[in-house]
Amino acid sequence: MNTSFSDGKEEKFKRKAISVKEGQTRILSYVRRSETERVPLPEAQGRILAEDVLAPHPYPHFRRSGMDGFAVISSDTLGCSAETPVFLEVVDEIPCGSLPSVALVPGTVSRIMTGAKVPDEADAVVMFEMTESSESQGRAYIQLKREIKPGSNVTPVGLELQEGELILEKGRRLSAGEISVLATFGIYNVPVVKRPSVAIFSTGSELLGVEEPLQDGRIRNSNTYMLASQIRDAGGEPFILEAIADDLGTARQKVQDAFELYDLVVTTGGVSVGDFDIMADLVAGDDVEMLFNKITMRPGSVTTAAVKNGKLLFALSGNPGACFVGFELFVRPAIGTMLGIGDPFLKEIQVELGREYVKVNNFTRFVRGRLELKEGRFVAFPAALDESSVMITIKDSDVLIVIPPSSRGVAAGEMVSVLQLPGSR
Amino acid sequence: MNTSFSDGKEEKFKRKAISVKEGQTRILSYVRRSETERVPLPEAQGRILAEDVLAPHPYPHFRRSGMDGFAVISSDTLGCSAETPVFLEVVDEIPCGSLPSVALVPGTVSRIMTGAKVPDEADAVVMFEMTESSESQGRAYIQLKREIKPGSNVTPVGLELQEGELILEKGRRLSAGEISVLATFGIYNVPVVKRPSVAIFSTGSELLGVEEPLQDGRIRNSNTYMLASQIRDAGGEPFILEAIADDLGTARQKVQDAFELYDLVVTTGGVSVGDFDIMADLVAGDDVEMLFNKITMRPGSVTTAAVKNGKLLFALSGNPGACFVGFELFVRPAIGTMLGIGDPFLKEIQVELGREYVKVNNFTRFVRGRLELKEGRFVAFPAALDESSVMITIKDSDVLIVIPPSSRGVAAGEMVSVLQLPGSR
After folding, report:
1. Which residues 72-131 on chain B approach chain A with CB closer than 8 angstroms?
2. Is the confidence at residue B5, as pLDDT, over 90?
3. Residue A72 pLDDT grade (very low, low, confident, very high; cuts 50, 70, 90)
């Protein structure tokens, strides 16, 4: 479907609203997983694994002592007790990382450290504290006063993993536990998915640079920095480009250039239906397919998405609240899918609403809010200020509370869906 | 208290165990907040704010239009209705970022865009859709058929924040919402706490480098990479140093050097009571104060902490599970306190235990586990393999389940404390 919105304002008012879910589906149908690259293990943290990793060897790969003690042949201890102790000769000493130097025969034991390889002939380790040491004619002995069960304190080969077992599935985010696994199996050059590069444009001549002094009637450009942070958090690499002034020709050229250089393009501002908005014009053209330009949601109903040569453009609202929500609902899943994450959407859980929400709307509302834990249950509280234009409550929110279209709102105590925002701890 | 453990193994067995809480208290009494540095806003993500930030101006700092429409003097619409509409002359047009160019007088209105400054004389904005436009003798008019309430669609100055209000408290971690606030208020050089530099040593000659081929009886050095990941996640900057072989002289010199260069020193391995352990010797010396060398916990009971010239040394177990837990319970809070985070400990919540835990112990157990959400309630499930030596279950855990010392274990359905692991999403 090629649409043209270039014949001006009248045309722009004609927006066919679709649901968030439909919008997400349209977007993801255009998203392909990014390429694989290899990074050294110390740089792999936070990256997404690009391939399944199978265990190249069992783990542990040798029978490991679980104690500091003596490796014994358990049958040597059969029938022994406090009254009839058994004396066994210490013939070897096996520190961690060394191999046994003597083959055990019945009646002999090896001193062994935790983590060291148990001699093949031994089938148990008895801890130091259960033994009494003695010497006789220059030879060392231990005395044992109870039977030792076969297998005691010996970690068998493959206890944790068998060779060939799936240890890490692709699409997994790498943190401490995964990195430990990769190191254990000697995987230093880790196959990860390339971070999608994301160009960020702000539009609107009302925007001041962050370092510019305040001016009456103008606001500072905060959305680009917020978006850069969201993009990084989602696993992309943000590139803040020069703000686009309200000039269609220049804007179009800049966006064209960005499509060449980056994997995704995100703009903020200029998507409302006012006279001075240009995003709709911008995505018009034979080679651009409009995916949607209105969503049945608040805030951010005029969020727009388009695709050009297989690359996605998202035109998010200039209102901070709407820009934030638009990113989380549409751009994050796109980046997540490019990264090969299995479920790229915000995690949805059902919780109790802690305070009534009475603002009604014919569109679904995504209300910033906070989860509180009460007696093992989560309760969601909507932010005091949740207007699209409000910036200050974003920082205090860890969920988006989903308020369905309704003429009466939702009462305190009713169950609601909430979408958990990432990075909330 | 200066202690010497250099007279060998006998001495090493004498360890006085203290509780986790007491250990944490001892550590934190030596921790001072790190210095402040300023970083550019785009690099501030994930950093910890070093100073309170007060609003340098109200926000919004001008009366902002919440709609595309017309700025009106609401008293002009008094008594108007469908039968008796009012006609008002359009005398100005105010795009976003521009200032009104005409002072309104009764009977006149300004066309205005969302986000633009409302003229001082106007006290309401009426949306386009509620008006009918007309022209007469070259002048533009709008027709209104209902009264407009004062204040409609006008965001007052300071709605979100008053000048001087606390907007971000020190100790706060900066993510998208905070970054948006900083940008909005023009704070580009952000005061953040310096990342503590943390030296990591592994000890033990059994360790192979990650890239070395597997050898019988030896394991790869995975803890240093795991620790580096945990340190980064906690907000520190990890430095993986050469592994220390089991040679006391070299080890002591390397650790001395690290104390000079780094803010914290963490070692892994060599803290058990076997013959070949050297950490206890290593922290002996007149200038080293031992804080503890045994904790009443599993895994990791032989975790050691010492302080030298105000700098902390943590000697963690070489067992992956114990090393992981030791870091989370002791090193993370130390780094967090250096960063000025208010509550540097893992967040503790009370949840139901999903499956019985029968392994008993006279020490408190910190069992790796997973939280699952069931009908708005969290339920904690212990990992199948939770031995100290087990590495593979770390990656699948998002909590440590606290099992108090007990002779009977904990039944399914009982409430337990769990410590939430960071980075779990």
Report:
1. 95-99, 113-117
2. no
3. very high
Dist CA A278 CA A268 (whole Å): 11
**What residues have CB less than 8 Å from A294, skipping those under 6 apart?**
A15, A16, A17, A18, A301, A302, A303
Give A164→chain B minimum CA distance, Å.
15
Last residue of a domain, one of B308, B338, B368: B338
CATH number of the domain bearing residue B291: 3.40.980.10
Search chain A and give the residue with CA nearest B384. A160
In this structure, the number of other CB atoms found within 10 A of the CB of residue A319 comes to: 26
Q: Collapsing DSSP states into helix, strand and coil, what is residue A395?
A: coil
Q: Nearest to residue A57, comparing CAs of A159, A163, A155, A158? A: A163
| Residue A219 forms part of a structural domain | yes
From B287's Cα to the closest Cα of chain A, the distance in A is 31
The answer on B85 and B52 residing in a single domain is no
pLDDT at residue B396 is higher than 80: yes
Q: Which of A296-300, B19-23, B191-195, B288-292 comes out lowest in average pLDDT?
A: B288-292
Judgement on whether residues A220 and A237 belong to the same structural domain of the protein: yes
Residues A376 and A311 in one domain: no
- Judged by DSSP in three states, A323 sits in helix
**A219 neighbors B116 (Cβ within 8 angstroms):** no
Last residue of a domain, one of A299, A321, A338: A338
Kindly provide the ipTM of the predicted complex, given to two decimals. 0.90
Are residues B203 and B309 located together in one domain of the fold? yes
Best of B133, B182, B379, B395 to disrupt the A interface (most A CBs within 10 Å) is B395
Domain identity same for B174 and B222: no
Interface of A with B in 273-302 (CB under 8 A): 273-276
- Residue B226's domain comprises 9-34+195-338
| Residue A281, pLDDT score | 67
CA angle A179, A180, A184 (to 5 degrees): 115
Q: What is the mean pLDDT of residues B179-198?
A: 97
DSSP, collapsed to helix, strand or coil, labels residue A354 as: coil
Place of tokens 């001699």: A119
**Residues in chain B closer than 8 A to A114 (CB atoms):** 272, 274, 319
Of A308, A272, A297, nearest to A12 by C-alpha is A272
pLDDT at A218: 92
Q: What is the pLDDT of residue A119?
A: 97
On whether any CB of chain A is under 8 Å from the CB of B347, the answer is yes
What is the per-residue DSSP string for B148-190? --TTTTEEPTTSSB-TT-EEE-TT-B--HHHHHHHHHTT--EE
| Contact (Cβ atoms closer than 8 angstroms) between residue B114 and residue B96 | yes
User: What is the C-alpha separation between A306 and B74, in angstroms, rounded?
Assistant: 41
Residue A66 to residue B389, Cβ atoms within 8 A: yes
Q: How far apart are CA B262 and CA B338, in angstroms?
A: 13
Burial B214-236, CB ≥16 within 10 A → b, else e = eeebbbbbbbbbbbbbbbbbbbb
User: What is the interface size between A and B, counted as CB pairs within 8 Å?
Assistant: 292
Cβ neighbours for B343, distance < 8 A, ≥ 6 positions apart: B336
A109 and A222 in a single domain? The answer is no
Residue B1 domain flag: no
User: How far is it, in rounded angstroms, from Cα B228 to Cα B208?
Assistant: 17
